[in-house]
Amino acid sequence: MASLQPVRGTHDLLPEENRVQDHIAETARAIGELYGYHRMTTPIFEFTDVFARTLGDTSDVVTKEMYTFEDRGGEKITLRPENTAGIARAYISNGMQQMSPVKVCYYGPMFRYERPQKGRQRQFHQIGVELLGVEQVAGDIEVIAYGAHILKSLGLWDNITLELNTLGDPESRAAYRNVLVDYFKGHFDKLSEDSRNRLDKNPLRILDSKDEGDRELVANAPLFAEYLNEHSQTFFKQLTDGLGDIGINYQLNPRLVRGLDYYCHTCFEFVTSTLGAQGTVMAGGRYDGLVSTMGGPQTAGVGWAAGVERLAMMVGTGPAAVRPVALIPMGDAAESRCRSLAQQLREAGIAVELGYAGNMKKRMKRADKANAKMAVIIGDDELAKGVAMVRDLDAGEQREVAIDSLIGVIGER
Ligand code: ATP
Ligand code: MG
Q1: Is 82 in the pocket of ligand 1 (CB under 6 A)?
Q2: 56-60, 97-101, 381-385: which has the minimum mean pLDDT?
Q3: Ligand 1 nearest-atom number relative to CA 126
Q4: Is 83 annotated as a binding residue?
Q5: Comparing C-alpha atoms, which of 27, 30, 21, 16 is closest to residue 155?
Q6: Cα separations (Å) of 153 from 186, 308, 316?
Q7: Ligand 1 centre distance from Cα of residue 69 (Å)
Q8: Cα-flanking dihedrals φ and ψ of residue 240, to 5°?
Q9: What residues does 225 pair with on adjacent strands?
Q10: Quick check: 128 and 304 in contact, CB under 8 A?
Q11: 240 is in an annotated binding site
Q12: Distance between Cα 274 and ligand 2 center (Å)
C-alpha cells in the first residue's frame, strides 16, 4: 500500500527531532514572557477569505500555495499558510482592541503547497510574534529585540545577519511605486512573464524576483530610499538608532520588500548562510493596514515569523533527555513494591524507567539504553529488610539504601 508513505512535503517528527522543536518553541515562549508577550493559538483552518483577502490575490501564497477545500457544509476552507491573518481575524472577532496593545506570540503548523526541498516543506512550523495597536517605532525595536534574543539564546547568533529595509509610509510608497512602474515599463521586453503580470498589481514584488533577467534590471532600478518623505525617513532613523541602543547590528538591504499594500516602514529578515538557498530563518515587518483591510478598526501592527524546521537544522541536537532512574524488581513481591515506588518517585518529580518484563540482565540492558543514571535493584531479600541496592551507573559503585529514604538519596544525585 503506497499510501503508507507520508504525503509529499510532510514528515514525521520522531522524538529526537521533536525535542529540538519543542526546545525552540519553549525558548521562544519563555523569552516572550520577558517582553510581555503571551502565547495565543488560532485554528489551523479558517475561511479561505481570511487569507485570500489579506495576502492579496497576486501573491505566490494565494495563487499557488494554499491548501483550500470545500468542507461538507459547502464552506470554503483553507489550511493556514501563515498565522498573521488568523491573529488579525481573531483580534477583530474577539474585540481585542479593548486590550490594546495586544502582545502575542504563537507556535504551530502551517501549510503551503510548495516544491519540497531542504528547508521547504508543505507542512512546516512557525514561531511568531504580533504586536497590535502600537504605531511607535519602539514597537518595531521591541519585536526585533525579542527575535534576536531567541536566536542568541539558541546559540545561533554568530551565524545570523539582520537585514533591514524600510517601505516608508503609504505616501512614500505610492510615489516609489509610480517611479518603479515607469522604470520597468521602459524595460518591459526584458521582464520575465511573472514580473510582467506583477507590473500593474504588485510592482514591488519584482524587486525580489528570483529570475536572472529580472535581477539585472532590479540592480539598476531606482532605490526606495530616494523617495521616502520626511516622516518615513525619521521613522527609519529612529529604528536604526534604537537598534544601536541595544547593540543589534544590521545590514541595509534595499531589495528587501513585501508586496502587499498594508505593509509599511520596517521590513526585516534574519538570514544565515549556513542553510544554503533557504537562508531566511525569521522574517517580519510592520503592517499598519492589515486589520482595517480585513474590516476591523484601523490598527497598527508589527511582527515576525520564523521557520522552526530551519532553526532546528541550525540548532542541531536538542537538550539531552532527562536521565531516569531504573527500577529493577526481582520477583513478584518486588514487582508490586516497585510499581508503587515508581509512582511515588514520579510524583516526586523523578523520572523512572520501570521495565515491563525480563530478567535482571535484560532490565539492566534496558536501563543502559534509557541512559539511566542509576539502577535501584530490589529483590525478595532486600524487600524483607526494607532496603534497595542502589547502583550508580556512571561510577559503577553500589550501596544499600533504605527504601523509605530513596527519594532523598536519588534527589541528591
Ligand atoms: P521563502 O522566500 O523562503 O519562500 P516566505 O517569504 O514565503 O519565504 P514567510 O512567509 O515570510 O516566508 O515565512 C516566514 C518564515 O517561515 C520563512 O523565513 C521560513 O523560515 C519559514 N518558511 C516559510 N515557508 C516555509 C516552508 N515551506 N517550509 C519551511 N519553512 C518555511
Ligand atoms: Mg514562500
Answers
A1: yes
A2: 56-60
A3: 16
A4: yes
A5: 27
A6: 48, 14, 14
A7: 22
A8: -70, -35
A9: none
A10: yes
A11: no
A12: 19
SS3 228: coil
Grid cell listed for 363:
532490565
For the segment 56-65, the average pLDDT, to the nearest whole number, is 79
Please state the atom number of ligand 1 nearest to the C-alpha of residue 116: 27
Domains and CATH numbers, the chain: 15-169+229-315 (3.30.930.10), 325-412 (3.40.50.800)
258 lines ligand 1 (CB under 6 A): no
Q: Edge-to-edge strand order for the sheet containing 374-379?
A: 352-354, 325-330, 374-379, 387-392, 398-402
Ligand 1 mean position to 365 CA, how many Å? Answer: 44
The angle, 0 to 180 degrees and rounded to 10, between the axes of the packed helices 48-55 and 84-93 is: 110
Task: Quick: pLDDT tens for 17-30.
Answer: 999 999 999 999 99
User: What is the rounded distance in angstroms from the CA atom of residue 389 to the CA atom of residue 397?
Assistant: 10
Of 316, 320, 411, the closest CA to residue 370 belongs to 320
CA dist 156 and 158 (Å) reads 6
C-beta 280 within 6 A of ligand 1: yes
- Single pTM value for the model: 0.92
- Ligand 1 atom 30, closest CA: 307
* 122 annotated as ligand-binding: no
CA 171 to mean position of chain CA atoms: 33
H or E segment to which residue 69 belongs? strand 67-70
Q: Is the C-beta atom of 240 inside 6 A of ligand 1?
A: no
Determine whether the annotation assigns residue 10 to a binding site: no
Under DSSP, the state recorded for 234 is H
pLDDT, one tens digit per residue, over 305-360 is 999 999 999 999 988 889 999 999 999 999 999 999 999 999 999 999 998 888 88
Q: Is 281 in the pocket of ligand 1 (CB under 6 A)?
A: yes
